[in-house]
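Bump. Still looking for Preprotein translocase subunit SecY structure tokens.
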Amino acid sequence: DQLFGGGLGRVSLFALGIGPYITSSIVFQILTTVTPALKSLAQGEEGEAGRDRYKDLIKQVSFGFALVQGFGQSTSLSPWDVSSQIMRSRYATDIQLTSWRYVFDNGPLWSAEITIQFALGAMLILFISEKITEQKLGNGASLLVFSSIVANLPRTIASTVSKATEMENGTMASGIFAATLLITILGLVYILQAERRIPILFAKRLQDEASGRGGTDDAGQSYLPIKLNASGVLPLIFCGSLLSLPALAANYTKAAWLQPVAKSLLPGSSLYIPISMVSAFIVSTFQVLDPKDMATNLRKQAAAIPQVRPGKETQDYLTEVLSRSSIFGAVILALLFVLPNLIELLTQLNTPNGFGGTSLLILVGVGIDTWRQLQAELLMQQYATDVDQFYKGRK
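Sorry for the wait, here they are.
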């Protein structure tokens, strides 16, 4: 619910949002690293037909996740019982929960209808996101999540300010909280922008330089960028989904032994911060780049890293660089992930939606990516205009 700006807390046809598709994409990204068949489809080894097949598989699994999440959403509309108190205890401790009854006749037929409606709503959202991407307005799925979080920010800020005014040390707590958000945003900008640039030498450019046909600095300007956080927001989204599974299972199965586990993993509990930090670190260390493929592509392009032999030595060198970068980036990402929650715990300023580490990373990351894409599109339009003017001038 925090990830989608409170969308799951409101009952509507589009309550699931783009969540099922994101979950499916994360699962396929992990499976692609260990499944050769999926890897060949994703990398286009079977052509555009293979890429289309890979995308269709993600959509099909997305519908399956939508059915599961839709069924879970339908169970949350059932009459109140003890297990549902787990999900509401953080924000509704002073409310008489026994009076919460949304549906009085939630039989199998009603649950099936609601589940299908939620699933179809999620697939319609996926269709809209694809149309946004086709119009080159940015990544459609990311922009939809971004807009849902932004739409909920005014209510979240108003709730936080209202609670701060009721506290004795509200001014100090608000200042600490605002400073923490600023530090988190700056840290996210750094980790999303930072990259390790490995110099690359191309044989063709060296030949041109030796024959006097190339610039003296032409070969030295090429490099291989290695992102400090190559996987982006996916690790934190996946981590948040994993941490929410016990609470969802406790709500669905009504198992008494799951309730203590679910409570310990809810935001605000004593175990939530250390467990989420360790989980974010482990998930973030998964490499999305394959050193073997990178070394093979360099050899095909007649390129090499200075003072590193092509082939196995290049692969080992890239493996070491990727490992160091991923570990360093995972440490920073894990710290930024839990920092807002830690400050909430210390200042007692709970923000139900919009200010979590995952939400901030999405806001900053999508903002940066959209800005880059818009700049690239404007640059392409400028180039097209200059070319048209050049040919008109020659005529």
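The radius of gyration is 25 Å.

Edit: fixed formatting.
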